[in-house]
Amino acid sequence: MVALSRPGGQRSGHAPDLNHSLSCTVHVCDGKLGVVTASRNPTTAEELRGAGLRVTAARVALLETVRRGDHLGVEAIAAGVRDRVGHVSLQAVYDALHALTAAGLLRRIEPAGSPARFEGRVGDNHHHIVCRSCGVVADVDCATGEAPCLTASDDHGFSVGEAEVIYWGLCPGCSTALSS
Ligand SMILES: [Zn+2]
Ligand SMILES: [Zn+2]
Q1: What are phi and psi of 121, to 5 degrees?
Q2: How close is the Cα of 118 to the center of ligand 1, in Å?
Q3: Which site in 63, 84, 99, 148 is 20 to 30 Å from 74, CA atoms measured?
Q4: What is the pLDDT of residues 33-55, one digit of tens each?
Q5: pTM for this one?
Q6: Which of 152, 143, 90 is nearest to 115 (CA)?
Q7: Which residues partner with 128 through β-bridges?
Q8: Cα 12 to averaged position of ligand 1 atoms, centre (Å)
Q9: How much distance in Å is there from the Cα of 127 to the middle of ligand 2?
Q10: 121 and 107 in contact (C-beta within 8 Å)?
């Protein structure tokens, strides 16, 4: 725990020390110092807790593995989790992926004909471009901002929350290989 220094005590300047406060709770208590907005990034464990999820070492490792990865599949995610916390069953990985996706911390994409992949970039309605040959996936920002970025010509009375677009093509490597 970190207590803010009392008035007249050590002054640490106006920038909060983000590294130092990573695992601490910062109380901005009495307003004597004026407006102090301690905007820091929450830890992974805090994010899980904030999403109403039980915090386990495996879930923390899983969320960080997916975020560091690039649209990883389940096997690669399981390998990443095991590297960090030891043996975790594939079923437990599936369960955690389901829970974190349902809570909005992860996004699942499933291009036709390929296994599900997961990513940590959520909430921005971005799209994906997929190589037909090797299956590599890349992010494509939404063309017009917030979801839904495409207005359906007939929404059938649905409240549309997302427009999923997948661009299919050949990645540069596969294009080169095919043309040479
Ligand atoms: Zn390719
Ligand atoms: Zn993505």
Answers
A1: -85, 105
A2: 19
A3: 148
A4: 434 455 678 899 999 999 999 99
A5: 0.70
A6: 90
A7: 139, 166
A8: 51
A9: 6
A10: yes
